[in-house]
Structure prediction request, 367 residues.
Amino acid sequence: MREILPVLARWHAAGVPFGLATVVAVSRSAPRGPGAAMAVGPDDEVVGSVSGGCVEGAVFELAQEVVAGGEARLETFGYSDADAFAVGLTCGGEITLLVRPVTPDSDPAFGAVAASVAAGEPVTVATVVDGPAPRGATLAVWPDRSDGTLGASGLDVAVTADARGELALGASVVRHYGPHGERREDAVTVFLQSFAPPPRMLVFGAIDYAAAVARIGDFLGYRVTVCDARPVFATPKRFPAAVEVVVDWPHRYLAGTETDDRTVICVLTHDPKFDVPLLQEALRRPAAYIGAMGSRKTHDERRARLTESGLTAAELSRLRSPLGLDLGARTPEEVAVSVAAEIVALRWGGSGAPLTTTAGAIHPPAA
Prediction:
């Protein structure tokens, strides 16, 4: 959804109605997760994807129908091997889509939501999926304000509280309420889609490997910063335009930088005078991934120094070193793929093993 919002914002600002299909629930090996979106706009222009190609043709027609009829629809697509001509997923999973018309009248806050996402301002959009409330009605919730209604004041109050809680976690979930927001009822189904600012990737050591890791981090949607104490290496021209480059001692920069449970820290400095104080700081703060480059000998020496510095076994267990998966990588670009693969595997609980050697669902439920 985040990727197609700039296009949708232009349509909305121009007063052009469009059909928006959003994945609100998945099961088994679904190809896209909740929040994935596809829209059909003027001149049948299509942006986004909800299944990687399996059901997009059917969704295209649904989007046209809801724009023409003005009513939102809820549709489920599953595996269709019983009927070779049925429209369904080929992967064996199941997705449920909310397909709704979006116009300036039906969703006046849409432009403000798109502007907030573009500016990195956190916002959650609550949308009625099913039940005795207007299907497709939306309520946009920011940390300090809200806009829109789901049809009942009590429901708005309950959903606003939950939306702010999910926004703090950066989570998108389905919640159930009574018609007036009752917590112990499940008559109304509401999808809460959170747009938290992009997670951070902090790369320390402005070497060739850092440039490759920064590029792939930017590609994966991270807000990337490269930091090095050596100004001759930390020059913006060596890195992608979207990457922030900072000249500072790594441990000092990290000490003054906020991190959270989504932050990725890659230590590529390869020098004890930088590595040790930096990892002392990193391993004692929130982060999703902390990896350090180096040979196994370098790793053993680094770990001994960190132990001598007072880090506990639990703190040291968070360190991924040598960083990356065993791909046989040689070039900076190949190493960057190895590092990215480990980050993705750790995020979703993947094993890193070839799929040909594994069994079960390819896309297991997220932890």
Q: What stands out?
A: Residues 153-169 form the longest helix (17 residues). The longest strand covers residues 18-27. The two ends are 21 Å apart (CA to CA).
